[in-house]
Amino acid sequence: MSQPLLGVEEEGQSNVSSPSDDCISQNGLGLKERNYLGLSDCSSVDSSGVSSLTEDNKNNLNLKATELRLGLPGSQSPEREPELCLLNSGKLDEKPLFPLLPSKDGICSSSQKTVVSGNKRGFSDTMDGFSEVKGSVYTEKIWMFPGAGSDSESPQTVGHGKYPGNPGVNVMLSARSSGAQASVKKDGPPNALQERPRAPNGTSLKQTGISNNNSSAPAAKAQVVGWPPIRSFRTKTLATSSKNNDEVDGKPGPGALFIKVSMDGAPYLRKVDLRTYSTYRELSSALEKMFSCFTLGQCGSHGSPGKEILSESKLKDLLHGSEYVLTYEDKDGDWMLVGDVPWEMFIETCKRLKIMKSSDAIGLAPRAMEKSKNSN
Amino acid sequence: MNYFPDEVLEHVFDFISSHKDRNSVSLVCKSWYKIERFSRQRVFIGNCYSISPDRLIARFPGLKSLTLKGKPHFADFNLVPHDWGGFLDPWIRALAKSRIGLEELRLKRMVVSDESLELLSKSFLNFKSLVLVSCEGFTTDGIAAIAANCRFLRELDLQENEVDDHRGHWLSCFPESCTSLVSLNFACLKGEINLGALERLVVRSPNLKSLRLNRAVPLDTLQKILMRAPQVVDLGTGSYVHDPSSEVYNKLKSAFQRCKSIRSLSGFLEVAPRCMSAIYPICTNLTFLNLSYAPGLHGNELTKLIQHCRKLQRLWILDCIGDKGLGVVASTCKELQELRVFPSDPYGAGNAAVTEEGLVLISAGCTKLNSLLYFCQQMTNAALITVAKNCPNFIRFRLCILDPIKPDAVTNQPLDEGFGAIVQSCKGLKRLSLSGLLTDQVFLYIGMYAEQLEMLSIAFAGDSDKGMLYVLNGCKKLRKLEIRDCPFGNAALLEDVGKYETMRSLWMSSCEVTLGGCKTLAEKMPSLSVEIINDTDQMEFSLDDRQKVEKMYLYRTLVGHREDAPEFVWIL
C-alpha cells in the first residue's frame, strides 16, 4: 500500500495515507520520546503501532480508540482511516460530544499542522502541553540525549524509512507532536496529570517514564505542582488562544494560500497555492501536471503499451478514474472528498490535499467509481 | 484633647485617603478614633478572615467601598484546594441587613455565588462598582442580576475570573435606562454575547471610558463600537481576526484613527498578525499595552508594534518577544515603569524565551523601571548586579527562572549575590520573588538590606533555618511571607512567634515544619489562626507531632477561628 514517504520535510512522516496515521506516527514519534525516557514496555506498543501501518491500521485505530481523548469509547476519532471517516461521515457530527472541547479533533489536527509546518509557535504550544508533567529540566534532558531515544527506536524507524537522519530531529518532532496531542487535551489546570493519555498506555506511561528517567532530581522537579507560578487562568487562556491562533493562521489571508499536496507512493510532497485557482477543474489539472512524473511511471507499469505520452486525458483518467481519488483534510481534521462543497468554501476549509489510490478509498468515492465507469 | 471641633478634624481627615494613614490616625486617641471611623468610607481588608462582617459594620457605619481578599496568593498556582474558603456570602448578607449604603465592592480570590451577586444587586440602591479579580463560583446569571438591578452601575470589571458562562443574555439585562456605565470589562467570559445588545449599550453610555471585550466579539463589532465610542480610554479587543484586505478592516483602521483617547490596550486573544498595523496610530499615545494573551504574535510583529509606542509606561508581553525584542523595548520605551514578561511556553525548553540578556538591556534603557515580573530561562549574578545598578527604583521585583533551582548560567554559582545586589540597591523594594539556586546567604542579604520589604515569595531556596530567621529578624515591615519547598523547620518557625502578629499571613508548604511545631505556635499565639491544609485523599490528620506538615497557612485575626473551614482544613 502506501509507503511512508522519505521526505525531508517533517510532514513526510505523517504522510502515510491517513490522518490517523498522522497522529499515530507522530504519536509514535511522541512515544519514541517517551521510550527515550526508558519505557521499554511501552515501546513495543508504539512500534507495533508504527510498524503495522500498512496492514494494521485498524489496530492502530483501535489503540487510538482506547485513548481517553474523546471520553466516549465508541465515538469516532477523526484520525481514523479515511475510508472509515467517509463511511461514517454521518457520524462525524457526533464528534463534538466531548463536553469541554467540541472541536477538539479539529484542534488536534490543526495543532498537528502547526507542528508539521515547523512553526515556532506550534513548538511552543506543543511543549506547553507536552511538558506539563515533565517540566523544563526534563525536557532539556531530552535534548541532550537524542541518541538514546533513537537507538531504541531505530529498528522501527529504519524499517519504515522514516527519518533515517537526525534523531534529534525525531525527538524534537516527537516533542512537538506529543505536545500537540497533549495541548489538545489540556483544558484544566496544568497539573492535571490525568489529562495526559496520549497513547494506549498513556497514564502509566508518564508515570513509569518519570520513574525511569535517568536523573532523579529533574524527574522530581518535573512533577512540581504550581511551578512555574502562573495563574491557571492564564495558562488555560493561553492554551485556548494558541489553538485558536493555529486555526487563524490557517485561514486564507491575502496572497497565497499554500497547502501541501501528498500522493500515495510519491517520495515527496508538493505545495499548491489554492488562490491561483478558481474552480475544481483548474486545481485538478494542475495537480495532474504536478504529479505526472509519478503517475507516468505507474502508467507505464500498468501496461499502457510502451507509449508514455503525456496526455492530459490519460492523466485525467488516471487521476479521476479508477486509479486515484483526490481528498482533502478540513479544519476539523476530517478527510473529505474533493468537490462536494462550493469552491470558496473549499479553500477556506481545506488544510491539505491527498491524492489517494482508489483501492485505499473503498467506499470513499462513489463518484470516482462512476467516472471510471464512464471513462471505461 | 481636641483643639478643633470635630467637623474640622473630619474635614482634615477627608484629605487622608491611604488606608495606612487612616489606620494610624485612628490610633492617636479616642476622639480621633471616633471621628475617623464615622468619616471612613473606604475600607481595605487584606484577609477576609481577619475580621468579621459584623465588626466591620459596627465600626464603620459610613462604609461605601469595601475591598476584600480571600484565598492566599499561592492559590493562584493550584496550591490551595478548591473549596478552602474565602466566601463572599456572609459579607453580603451582613451588609444587606445593615444600613450600610455600599457603593463599591472589590474582591480578589474570593468565592462568589450567584445568590450573593443577586443579593448584592438588590440590597444597595446606590451600588456603583463591582470589581472581581481571580474570583470563582459564579455564573453569568449572577452578572445578569447585577446588570439588571443596579440602576446606577458605573463599573463592572471582571478580571481573570473563572466564570461559568451560561451563554445567556446578561448583556441584554442592562435596562435601556442604564446610561451610567463608565467601565465594562468582560474579557474573561468565554461565551457568546448578544452583539446587538452590546452595541446598543455602548451607544447609550456616553461616559464609557473603559471597555474590554471577550473573545466572542468579532472585529467588525469592535469597529462599530469604536465608531460610537471614540472617547474610550482603555480598550480590550475581542477576537482580532480578519482579512486585512477587507472593508471591515479598513473601517477599523479609520475608527482607530478617530480614537485619540486610547491610552491602554489589551486583549488580542485571537489575533491575525497582519492586522496589527491598524493600531499603529494609537500606539503613539499608549501608556499601557497588554499583549500577554496573544501567542499569535511573533517577535517581529511585536517589535514593529512596540517601535511605535514611545510613551509606554506599562508593558505586559510574552517571552516570544525574545531578548532582541526586549532590546527594542529598551530603546523605544524610555518611560517604561512596569514590565511583565510571561512565558509562552512554561514547561518546555523553548526557543521562544528570554534570558538575562533581555533584562539587562531593559535595565539599561528603561531607567524608570520600578516594577518587574520576568519569567526567563536563565539568569546570572552579573546580570542582576547590572540591573540593580541601572534601576535602583524597584518597588516590585519578581523573577521566575523556569527551572526553579537553576544556578547562575555562566558561573554555576547560586544567585545569592545577584539578588543581594537588588535588595541592597533598591532601597524602596516592597515586593520580592526569588528563584534559581539560592542558599541562606541571599536571606542574609534580604534581612540586612530589604528594609521596606512587605511581601516575599520563596521557592526551593535556602539551606537551613537560618535563612528564614534572617528574613524574620531583618525585615521589619514584612507583611506577607510565602514559602514553598524550603528546608525551614520548627526552629525558624518558633524563634519569634510575636512576629506573626505584625504580619498579615505566613504560608509554608513542603517545608520542614512539623505538626508539633505548628501546635506549639498555635498555643503560644491565640491571636493567630494556624491552619493545616491537608488536600490529599486521605483525610487523616495523623496525631503524630513529628510528622511534617504539607501545607500550613497562618494569619492574624481578631475574630478567632473561622467557622466555614472545610474538612480538610484543621485549625489548631
TrEMBL record, chain A:
GO terms for biological process: auxin-activated signaling pathway; regulation of DNA-templated transcription. The keyword Chaperone does not apply. One of its GO terms (cellular component) is nucleus. Residues 211-220 have a biased composition (Low complexity). Keywords: Auxin signaling pathway, Nucleus, Repressor, Transcription, Transcription regulation. Residues 1-27, 177-222 are annotated as: Disordered. It comes from the Eukaryota. It holds the Pfam family AUX_IAA. Residues 256-358 form the PB1 domain. It is found in: Nucleus. Residues 13-27, 201-210 have a biased composition (Polar residues). Aux/IAA proteins are short-lived transcriptional factors that function as repressors of early auxin response genes at low auxin concentrations. Belongs to the Aux/IAA family. Homodimers and heterodimers. This is Auxin-responsive protein. It comes from Theobroma cacao. The lineage of its organism: Eukaryota, Viridiplantae, Streptophyta, Embryophyta, Tracheophyta.
TrEMBL record, chain B:
It comes from the Eukaryota. GO terms for molecular function: auxin binding. The keyword Transcription regulation does not apply. Residues 4-45 form the F-box domain. GO terms for biological process: auxin-activated signaling pathway; pollen maturation; SCF-dependent proteasomal ubiquitin-dependent protein catabolic process. One of its GO terms (cellular component) is SCF ubiquitin ligase complex. Keywords: Auxin signaling pathway, Developmental protein, Nucleus, Ubl conjugation pathway. SMART domains: FBOX, LRR_CC. Pathway: Protein modification; protein ubiquitination. The keyword Chaperone does not apply. Pfam families: F-box_5 (PF18511), LRR_6 (PF13516), Transp_inhibit (PF18791). It is found in: Nucleus. PANTHER family: F-BOX/TPR REPEAT PROTEIN POF3, PROTEIN AUXIN SIGNALING F-BOX 3. This is Auxin signaling F-box 2. It comes from Theobroma cacao. The lineage of its organism: Eukaryota, Viridiplantae, Streptophyta, Embryophyta, Tracheophyta.
